[in-house]
Design a protein that fits this description.
This protein is α/β, with parallel strands linked by helices and 317 residues long. The strands form 3 sheets. The chain has an 8-stranded parallel beta barrel with strand order 1-2-6-7-8-11-12-13, surrounded by 5 helices. The chain has a 3-stranded antiparallel β-sheet with strand order 3-4-5. 49% of the residues lie in helices and 15% in strands. Helix 2 (61-71) crosses helix 3 and helix 4 runs parallel beside helix 5 (156-176). The protein starts with a helix and ends in a 5-residue tail after the last helix. Strand 7 (144-147), helix 5 and strand 8 (180-183) form a beta-alpha-beta unit. The structure holds magnesium ion (MG). Magnesium ion binds at residues 183, 230, 256, 258, 289.
């Protein structure tokens, strides 16, 4: 009985000790976490595309920007510019001040011209729009100005006029002092075909025609148009973002880091290979992007989880 009692007592102590040790190391980890987190965050430059925040950013914008800084974000890529000089309804210069007060830098901005139909007729109004938009973004201290949506493109001819207008837009924006970039979704990986190509019969493994993205890369002037590769939408377009980065080192100057939802959950994205290639190419800019969550989680909670994911990964330097 004594032995059994001692055994039970020792077992109880052991369990308590194990729990204590576990709790203690957990407590130490919890205590250590902020400094580790902060030191990692201190060295890492993490951009955020503010589309990820939806309307939540505009409920007390200054405080929300402080929250982003605490999460580890350092740079913002804007969305929602309107030609009256506002971002999401907030005056641009006020927006800039709020970001600076929070310690965030506005590095980039997504802006769409007034029409998605790029034609000889619409060209003049598109170029006029860019002149004003470029001047506004120079005042913001932006480093990149990027068109995020694909104009209507159903043929080689459509691609040709789009690239002509991209080149001329790039020239105007460059003259104002900024580089002009293009951001993709998955529709750029659709193919266009000549009438000749359409007439032929193909086996299911053949891919006739040319991907629109490849036409954009080929027909735009490298000195006037760069590319911001959205790695998730590239995968959704059944292409490999790493392969594109390897093939087009001189053209892809920025990335959208994105998964189907929260980072690392889908199993679709090889972020380690993407980041390794990004560093090898010397790509300086990347921006986290998160689509609307629809899960009960707020966008701010979602972008925090994305930042935590990147801060915890040794391949993010
Ligand atoms: Mg994107």
């Amino acid at each position: 009985m004594t032995n059994r009692r001692n055994f039970l007592k020792n077992a109880a102590l052991l369990t308590a000790g194990t729990l204590l040790a576990g709790k203690s190391s957990f407590a130490n980890a919890a205590t250590a976490a902020p400094s580790v987190h902060n030191s990692m965050a201190a060295g890492k430059k993490i951009g955020l595309q503010i589309y990820s925040l939806q309307g939540e950013l505009y409920k007390d914008t200054p405080a929300r920007m402080q929250e982003l800084k605490k999460m580890g974000y350092t740079d913002l890529e804007l969305a929602g510019y309107s030609k009256d000089g506002k971002i999401g309804g907030v005056d641009m210069m006020e927006f800039k001040k709020m970001a600076e007060d929070a310690g965030l830098k506005i590095t980039s901005s997504h802006v769409n011209p007034p029409t998605g139909e790029f034609t000889k007729e619409s060209k003049a109004s598109i170029l006029e729009f860019w002149k004003k938009a470029a001047d506004d973004h120079v005042k913001l201290g932006c480093e990149l100005l990027i068109q995020p949506m694909m104009p209507k493109c159903e043929s080689y001819d459509d691609a040709a006029i789009i690239c002509e207008i991209f080149n001329e837009s790039g020239k105007i924006i460059k003259a104002a002092g900024l580089p002009f970039g293009y951001h993709n979704h998955n529709m750029e990986f659709q193919r266009v075909m000549t009438e000749e190509e359409k007439k032929k019969k193909y086996s299911f493994w053949e891919h006739p025609g040319t991907q629109i993205y490849d036409l954009f890369l080929k027909e735009t002037d490298p000195s006037l148009v760069f590319f911001e590769l959205d790695v998730y939408w590239t995968v959704m377009g059944q292409n490999d973002p790493v392969e594109y980065m390897q093939k087009h080192k001189d053209r892809i100057k920025a990335l959208h880091i994105k998964d189907r939802s929260l980072f690392g959950k889908s199993g679709m994205m090889n972020f380690e290979a993407i980041f390794n290639q990004m560093y090898e190419n010397g790509i300086k800019y990347y921006f986290v992007e998160l689509e609307p969550m629809h899960t009960g989680m707020t966008q701010f909670e979602g972008v925090k989880q994305c930042a935590d994911y990147l801060l915890s990964k040794p391949f993010v330097k």
